[in-house]
TrEMBL record:
<dbReference type="GO" id="GO:0004521">
    <property type="term" value="F:RNA endonuclease activity"/>
</dbReference>
<dbReference type="InterPro" id="IPR013527">
    <property type="entry name" value="YicC-like_N"/>
</dbReference>
<dbReference type="Pfam" id="PF08340">
    <property type="entry name" value="YicC-like_C"/>
</dbReference>
<keyword id="KW-0255">Endonuclease</keyword>
<comment type="similarity">
    <text>Belongs to the YicC/YloC family.</text>
</comment>
<keyword id="KW-0540">Nuclease</keyword>
<protein>
    <submittedName>
        <fullName>YicC family protein</fullName>
    </submittedName>
</protein>
<feature type="domain" description="Endoribonuclease YicC-like N-terminal">
    <location>
        <begin position="3"/>
        <end position="158"/>
    </location>
</feature>
<keyword id="KW-0378">Hydrolase</keyword>
<dbReference type="InterPro" id="IPR013551">
    <property type="entry name" value="YicC-like_C"/>
</dbReference>
<dbReference type="GO" id="GO:0016787">
    <property type="term" value="F:hydrolase activity"/>
</dbReference>
<dbReference type="InterPro" id="IPR005229">
    <property type="entry name" value="YicC/YloC-like"/>
</dbReference>
<feature type="domain" description="Endoribonuclease YicC-like C-terminal">
    <location>
        <begin position="185"/>
        <end position="296"/>
    </location>
</feature>
<dbReference type="Pfam" id="PF03755">
    <property type="entry name" value="YicC-like_N"/>
</dbReference>
Length: 296
């Protein structure tokens, strides 16, 4: 299953005997799925069925669906209100004679409200059912187009996310291989700190107890667990992206775990090189999480 973005656009249309049908669908980010419909007057009856079509394909995003329906009234004859037309013509002539107004024209008189009317095409039940069925069929086509649009953007987004994961993995491996984590280096650093304390305090400190405390602090400062968890999170995130589907919320939770481990790594670090790696990790994790906000 492919990864989907929550943004996209699609349009679909069709010609039916006596009508032109067109749907436009736009999708943007949302915490859940919300479908908003704009339907022509008289077609509110389609709302529930239209929402079900959208809900069947998408699980997150704010989707706005607009239906345009143009009826072909070529078979309908216009009706002229001859009484009103005659009264308007007489009035125009009097105004011309009395005030010197320009003579009235035929198109001007016919443009007066109520003079020329085009009656609406009457719809029987069969025609309504045909129109409803065709409208929903065009919506299915538009929804399929929107899904494809979201998948195309989702594929590009997945590539960006995988790139961030590769960077995170590279930084974790750098932290793991940092010379400051070498046991010999750790012993030398702790030994040096103990010697400084002993020289400063003279005989007031218990050397054995001091070494034990230093060893305990060194154990607490070890970042092995953070490195292992970060590696596991990278594997899990890659697996989710490969799996596809609606993974945005799950990846967002994992991004929070990335951030937590990065913070812990920085707080436990006793080497400037590892701290710098931890800070760089935080930047990449923030970029990773920002991209996730557009993922279904």
């Amino acid at each position: 299953m492919a990864v989907q973005s929550m943004t996209g656009f699609a349009r679909a249309s069709a010609e039916l005997a006596g009508a032109s049908i067109a749907w436009e669908l736009r999708s943007v980010n949302g915490k859940g799925l919300e479908a908003r419909l704009r339907l022509p007057p008289g077609l509110e009856r389609l709302e529930q069925a239209a929402k079900q079509i959208i809900q069947k394909r998408f699980s997150r995003g704010n989707v706005q669906a607009s239906l345009t329906l143009s009826r072909n009234n070529s078979a309908v004859r216009p009706v002229v209100n001859e009484v009103l037309l005659e009264e308007a013509a007489h009035l125009a002539k009097r105004l011309q004679e009395r005030f010197g107004c320009a003579p009235a024209t035929a198109d001007g008189l016919l443009a007066l409200r109520g003079v020329l009317e085009i009656p609406e095409l009457a719809e029987d039940e069969e025609m309504r059912n045909t129109l409803d069925s065709a409208s929903l069929s065009v919506l299915e086509e538009a929804a399929a187009g929107l899904e494809q649009s979201r998948r195309s953007e989702g594929a590009a987004l997945a590539a960006i996310l995988l790139g961030h994961l590769s960077t995170i993995e590279h930084l974790v491996l750098r932290a793991e291989a940092d010379p400051s984590r070498n046991p010999a280096v750790i012993r030398e650093r702790i030994g040096g700190q103990v010697r400084i304390l002993m020289e400063a305090a003279g005989t007031a400190l218990d050397e054995t107890r001091l070494h034990m405390e230093a060893a305990l602090l060194a154990t607490k400062a070890d970042i092995r667990e953070e490195i292992d968890r970060l590696k596991a999170h990278v594997r899990a995130a890659r697996g989710m992206i490969e799996e596809g589907g609606a993974i945005g919320r799950r990846l967002d939770f994992l991004a929070q775990e990335f951030n937590r481990e990065s913070n812990t790594l920085c707080s436990k670090s006793n080497a400037t090189t590892v701290t710098a790696i931890g800070l760089e990790l935080k930047v990449v994790v923030d970029q990773f999480r920002e991209q996730l906000q557009n993922l279904e």
